[in-house]
Design goal:
Helices cover 36% and strands 29% of the residues. It is an alpha+beta fold and 146 residues long. The mean pLDDT is 92.
Length: 146
């Protein structure tokens, strides 16, 4: 019997996949527990359309991130953070704070995973940072002021 997985099922597959299973297994365990539904032609076509739409959205988002990273290359982003008289910050600058500063200054929304911090930023001054997506990388300068 062909079924569409509604949830991940161990040793069978992931949600959204179409699988062939034994009739008794589907009728006695999978369907009553809400793990699968019967695979009809219309449901399989709807699932394919949904997958294509999700893939198109993912590609559009990836293109937007790539364009943002290319436009940020070589820019200087300024961030305000309180520090003591020796220039040490009271708390380190996080990737979330850098993301907010980039969004505030340039209106580019980049994911936190694209911000690569090789060490904690705990002092005022200029710090080179690398930004990377799956296809493009760029570098910016983060200027921390009090």
């Amino acid at each position: 019997m062909k079924v569409i997985l509604l949830k991940d099922v161990p040793k069978l597959g992931r949600a959204g996949e179409v699988k062939e299973v034994a009739d008794g297994y589907a009728q006695n365990r999978l369907i009553p527990n809400g793990l699968v539904e019967m695979a009809t032609k219309s449901k399989i076509e709807a699932l394919e359309r949904k997958k294509e739409e999700a893939e198109a959205q993912h590609e559009a988002k990836e293109k937007e991130i790539i364009a943002s990273l290319k436009s940020l290359n070589g820019k200087t982003i300024t961030l305000q953070s309180p520090a003591n008289d020796k220039g040490h910050l009271y708390r380190q600058v996080t990737a979330e704070a850098i993301q907010e500063a980039i969004k505030k200054e340039t209106r580019h929304a980049i994911p936190i995973s694209a911000i690569l911090l090789d060490r904690p930023l705990k002092e005022i001054g200029e710090h080179p940072l690398n930004l990377k997506s799956s296809k493009v990388s760029s570098s910016i300068t983060l200027q921390i002021k009090t």
